[in-house]
Amino acid sequence: MADAAEFLRRLSRPSTSVSGRLWTAMVGQGSRTPVCPETPRLDGKRTLVTGGNAGIGFWIAHGLSVRGASVMIAARREDLSREAVSRITKETRNGVDAVRLDLGDLRSIAEAAGKLAKVASDAPFDIVVLNAGVWPKAYGTSAQGHEIAFAVNVLGHHALLKRMLSRGMLAAGSRVVVLTGDIYIMAANCTPDFKYSGAYGGMLAYCRSKLGNMWFAREFARHHPSLEVVVVHPGVVATGLVSGETGVMAGLNRSLLLAPKAGAQTPLLVATQPGLGRAAYFHNVGGQMQLSANDPAANANRAAHFWGVLEKLDGLR
Known about the structure:
Layout: H1 4-9, E1 11-12, H2 18-26, H3 29-32, E2 46-50, H4 55-66, E3 70-75, H5 78-92, E4 96-100, H6 106-119, E5 125-130, H7 148-166, E6 170-179, H8 201-223, E7 228-233, H9 240-243, H10 260-263, H11 265-272, E8 280-283, E9 287-289, H12 300-313
Parallel strand pairs: 1-9, 2-3, 2-5, 3-4, 5-6, 6-7, 7-8
Antiparallel strand pairs: 8-9
Helix pairs in contact: 4-5, 4-11, 6-7, 7-8, 8-12
């Protein structure tokens, strides 16, 4: 794996072609993905990881705990959360807790925010990692009737972060890490009402939501300059999201995929290392990505419009 200092110096101007981006993401990622340094220590820091009970999220939570942070896991499956809390606490000898959060239901987000507010009453959160995500196997909608990938991967995180801000749960200068997927290059838009069917519909919904993550992060950084918002592509990882897919994704050579612990390294790095800059986009292979003007994620007008959509749907007034 790559040296972290070298990785942070690495600059890439990625192609906007689908084939070029997918080739870059897959080939050589095992040797070019960085390993997060054990420093700086995070003692006294309060952190939150959505989807921290499994996959990459588990190893992000584990890595933050190893470095001394107080870790809160927010996830839907309470049984997996209990197992994750028990294992991380045992292996890191550091306190970990969990709160139930269903990002596909604004009512659950409001309930979770209330519980998080009690936790943050003595000290706010310093690092928030928005990791949770779904790759739909079939068309579905959220509790509020929005397409499920949009609802969980983007709107739910927007609503959670806005509630945390409104209730003073984020420390000044806190870092927000937004996980995306470079597969967003296959999409041109992200909307709450996308309809699909067939073998590739779920993949397209996922791609659109990852573009939504890029726009969401860009606009959150613009509207809330007190936050350090960083976007990260963790790599193409052998988790349930990809390995359970059919069709094209099922044909990927598993030897090219990262293990979840390796996939957590780039998110951990951008969560813990100082001086990354606001609204930067880091890719586990490319380093800091300098997007061209015709990259869909760089479309300022669509990003601003998308922010307006999220603001109308997030359940806050």
